[in-house]
Amino acid sequence: MHLISVNTGRPRTADDRSGLGAAFTGGLETGIDKRPVSGPVAVAAPGPTGTAGSGVAGDAVVNLRHHGGDHKAVYAFAREDLDDWERELGRVLPNGSFGENLTTGGIDVNGARIGERWRIGTDLVLEVASPRVPCRTFADWLGENGWMRRFTQRAAPGAYLRVVEPGVIRAGDPVTVVHRPAHQVTVSFVFRAMTTERDLLTEVPAAGDALDPKVLAKALAHSERQVAAAESR
Description:
Layout: E1 2-8, E2 35-37, E3 41-43, E4 74-78, H1 79-89, E5 102-105, E6 117-120, E7 124-131, H2 136-142, H3 147-154, E8 159-165, E9 167-169, E10 175-179, H4 187-194, H5 213-232
Parallel strand pairs: 4-5
Antiparallel strand pairs: 1-2, 1-5, 3-9, 4-8, 6-7, 6-10, 7-8
């Protein structure tokens, strides 16, 4: 298990999308276009959601309402999943194409459990916090018909991670799982619960406080409604 690349981005608009996303138009800015960087990159907890950006030094987050902050400090996506999409879409997808900060090799990112901790390189420790849910910007940027539906049906969204111990990383660093929780709530499971299989939300709280608080609150509210409905019958 290793880190293939560390990817960062600057704010871009339709005018400088470099060939990605023919449907991405207008003056909207986005930081989704990540590119691999060489050399060491510092990673640290960025701060509260809603006011802080990326945990990766040099990486831009434009929409702070939905991206960035401690619970979405780093986004990881497996190179193996990019390869699958390359074959399906018939186009080259360089590392960073899906807006990921970390392109990994040999890691089942979607099968990682919420609260699972990874050591990358010598110092950095990250904790799996939630799945990525596709947005309209992502769909427009790639410019693929029906992209949100196709991406959702695959249920392989990649993972947002929080920073437990800051550190410096670079391409080629080993990735080691240093903690795996006892529960079975994985990134893919939470994604399906939030999108196509809402009944699964009742099982999501088993992940505990390691889960992004917004996702946990949604799952707990759903469970309470289910209990209330059952009691009213």
